[in-house]
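Sample log: Diaminopimelate decarboxylase.
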Amino acid sequence: MKLNGTMQVNEKGHLEIGGCDTVELARTFGTPLYVLDEALFRQNCRDYYTHFTVRYGAEAVYAGKALLNLAVCRIVEEEGLGLDVVSGGELYTALKANFPAEKIFFHGNNKSSAELAMALETGVGRIVVDNMFELELLNRMAGEVGKKAAVILRLTPGIEAHTHEYIKTGQIDSKFGLVIENGQAMAGVRRALEMDGIELKGVHCHIGSQIFELDSYSQAAKIMMSFVYLVYRETGCLLGELDMGGGLGVYYAEGDKPRPIQEYADVLMKAVMEKASEYGIPVPKVIVEPGRSICGPAGTTLYTVGAIKNIPGIRKYVAVDGGMGDNPRPALYQARYEACLANKAGRQPEEVVSVAGKCCESGDMLIWDISLPAAEPGDILAVSCTGAYNYTMSMNYNRLPRPAMVLVGNGRAELINRRETYEDLIRTDLLPERLLNGSR
């Protein structure tokens, strides 16, 4: 397993993160356990702030869908980033953490009236409007409360990013955004400019996630800038903000080649500035929305090894006490991960095994064919780069409680999400009176 951030192997031969022995973390907090490396999370935030905000005057807005809780909100604010939310629940979390509403961008392709009302009432900085239905609804609602909603229109630039089909979002055939090529985007702009309850600030696109080819961002930026110029030429409106979304890839397993944040910033900003110069228009304020590239590498999940099943000549299965309930990505996207035995981190691999989850599904496999030291029941398996889309996509399938999460740094471990209990699982269950009394 590739070590990153504050990871190291200590004198006991155990994996250590943030100065904390992961074997001790497992003993203290139980497993499965999400571990968040505070120093690495903060450094990734600072890299975006430095390379986009300080160098180019752009704005980095953390994508909360990747990992969000009260502690994460506070850290993101302290590091000077804005926050991208995609639901009323995410917005509620941000507000409960006292995140400044004016620095919140509210996304989503089907926001409810209640969610839009919440956004208007709390004064979020930008509402990223996805479609004409939402635009009309928001205009009407803003008018009813005597407000003008600051809006960015989400567009579809027609870029086919090289990533998994389920996380491509910039192609024409997508549930997100107004298509540029067929005229929907321009129609949306014209309609927004006519509305009394809408203040059109700019346009947005997001071409996908886990992207390594920076040329995709350059091409998307050029298309978006050409559209900004077309809007200016046809309507006289010079859009001041260009939100290019996120999606920068991270290292999960051998073969992944993530690009430095500085290089990403340089490629993207160069494309925007060149097009602005070509068209003789001001460079708009650029906004980026990193999520995975901030929190992904900062997260590790600890599991306890249980049953071991050997099928001679076929495969050896090592089962752990978690799986798709706390990390559905391998089942959803065939996502790959690396891992080590945290209590044997100083030992060399001895065998190839496959790591199975405990859910009652054949597809609940965390890692296929990984080289590890000889695994035994009770060992602690550490899976790296689980900070993004693990906790936020976790579920209670098979009525498994969601794991706890700890924030580690400088030898200190602090609980930032408590482990769910069985009582939590039935908290919303109700028994009708007739069933409670045993009658039909």
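Observation: Confidence is low (pLDDT under 50) at residues 163-170.
Observation: The two ends are 57 Å apart (CA to CA).
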